[in-house]
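Onboarding guide, step 5: your first structure request.
Type a short instruction followed by the sequence, for example:

Predict the 3D structure of this protein.
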Amino acid sequence: MLGLLLLVLVPELAHAGRGRPTGFSYWIGKTDSAIEVTAQTRFYTPTNPENGDASTAEATREFPMPTTGCLSELHLVLSGDVGDAGDNLVATVRKNGANTALTCTIPGATGTTQARCENIGSEACFARGDRVALQFVTAATPAAVLPAWTLRFDPDTASDVVLASVTQFALTSNLDRFIAFGCSGAQATEASSQLVMPFAGRITALYARSSGVIAAGNRTVDLFKNGVVDATFQCVLNNGAQDCNDLTGPLAFAAGDSFTMHAVSADAATLQGVNVGLLVVPYNPGEFPLLAAVTPSAVATAFQSLMNATTTGAGSATEDPVANYVPPLVLLRAYAVVATAPGANASWRFSVRRDLTTDTALACTISNPSTNCGVSFMFGTEDGQRMSWESVPSATAPAATRVQLSIAARAR
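The system replies with structure tokens like these:
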């Protein structure tokens, strides 16, 4: 189990006392690729798209809900003006392939900057197995802008947390792939897809959906915990099927444990991706994870979104494209885990940044021969505050490595 350095900070709770129930969480999304799409419809995974990767095929980005509850409070922020009159952008939460009332529009306006919209009066409610996606529809010729969004999720059972893993590859015959827990993307090796959990809890449900009906063979979806396959959950997508689920858990885990989704095809399986929804229940009610991964530069500072994990990305040399807009949160603790120790006289410092400024109280350092660090704090974020991870290598360049980054948060 990872060790933690304990820091006590004065929380900034300007939004405390809003009278909200405990147990809800936020889905925080960010893309670092522009949506300069002329009169077209694109789909995103609403929880945590890898590098904002979009698709014109909704089936490749939607995932099955592993619990019941409602999404609300859609906030959308663009990196710049959407454009002139008619250059509109409409964001809509989708349910089972249809629009919901949870939508907002940023209208283009000549001579006036239009870069934000919100919908705090509508909601979209889901049953177990319902499919959820986020749709962007553009009109005319909008500018090349980067969207960031947040959604509030209120589960019917307090403290239920939803994580999604959405593949961006096609499982062919006898192919074995690992998918970063709580994000997108896949790798051929399990170590390349691990993500560390920032709190203790249990996994209680796994739902999987193929991007198309399995015409031959089958798909098996399961979990790896700390590098070893765990038999608690196993979901099989058989010939002729598109959905499966496993509710036989729970699978308990400690803070600092690493997880990976695993998918394998058998026989003459057709070309289909696999999208997964996981139900996680923290032992401390109300906590939820912000999960990220990056392979940063070993010779220069790099920045990474809080919840926009990638299995292969190197982060960004500049912070603005990757910084998340966050809702009111309390950040509680953070972990960093490297696959390879830094090496002699080398180290990494990982910091949670706010408003494009390093806060050394929200940082921890991995020095050789260690491969992990952690820090506890209590820090309140403000509506619309911008936050990111910063990776700083030592003067003696550390060994190149993939880094798992996670934060335990609570909504307020």
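Each response can be followed by summary notes, for example: The chain has three domains: 5-13+287-411, 25-156, 162-282.
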